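tool=predict chain=A
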Amino acid sequence: MRFTVALAMAVLAAAPPAAAEEGWAWPVEGRVLTPYSNDNTRPYAGGMHRGIDIAAAVGAPVVAARAGTVTHGGVVGSSGLVVSVRTGDGRHVTSYLHLSSLGVDKGDAVAAGARLGAVGTSGRRSAAEPHLHFGVRLADRDDHYLDPLSLLPPLSAPDPAPAAPPLPAPVPVRAAPQPVPVPVAAAPRAQGAPVPAGARARPRGTLQPGPAAVRVPAAVPRAAPALGGAPARRARHPRRVPPAGAPVRSRAPAALPRPAPAAASERSFGRPLALGGLGLIGLVLFGGVAWRTLGRANAGVNSRAARAARSIRDRLRIGPSVRRLPSP
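tool=predict ok
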């Protein structure tokens, strides 16, 4: 008995899994964006998804998943452009939503794999990426939907890319021996002239000082030319070169001439102009007061002079002839 049970279990384990129903094909090939999620007790409740969304490019051909007859072709509310096909056995109704164009009319008989239309983006979709919404329901019940993946065959995996051929192994190459450099003895440097006893030895890498400044003697007056001959050339005195080791005397640079004082025309007239302006402003402000003061002083002087003349005339008792003189 135990052996029989074990044998039956082994046969069941070795049997292949149940395949999908025959006669079904994928309407488009692509990955499933949104899987089937539905409760047939309340199929129109919020959050239900009564089919699968298969990713596909806009304009990709949509074919019949199974042979049957077209029952509808046109716009259905928020589902956009829709094609519905009743299968030939009368058990299922397949729906293709969000199409961009139709290739069949109502009543047309289509075979499995026949073109129905093209993928589009019509209606209100559950995924932003372009796709085909494919749904399956029982033909005798309007509210009983099925998972399309339970009917469709598994998609064939794409062929793997051919492996690249292996690269050939590198062949070692012997390098030619390099010549070994032979050291060459450096040529001896020429010995310079002996350094005088009083001179300092110049450190290596420094510049040797040039000859000291030579004092040039004053110009010698040119001799008078001889009669009937060429003019005598001026005799040149040889320059005296100080001996090596003698201290070098440097001449102080000549004093630069002082700049001449600026001319009177170049001097600034700002101060006299400012004083003149202040005087003009004072004359305008206080000119009337000064003019009245001078008038009063002049009147007082004239009156005092007249009184003094009359006093002198009365004292001297000048006659009527003098009185006829005009008074000042």
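Confidence is low (pLDDT under 50) at residues 1-19. The beta strands are 32-34, 52-55, 61-63, 68-75, 81-87, 92-102, 109-110, 115-119, 131-138, 145-146.
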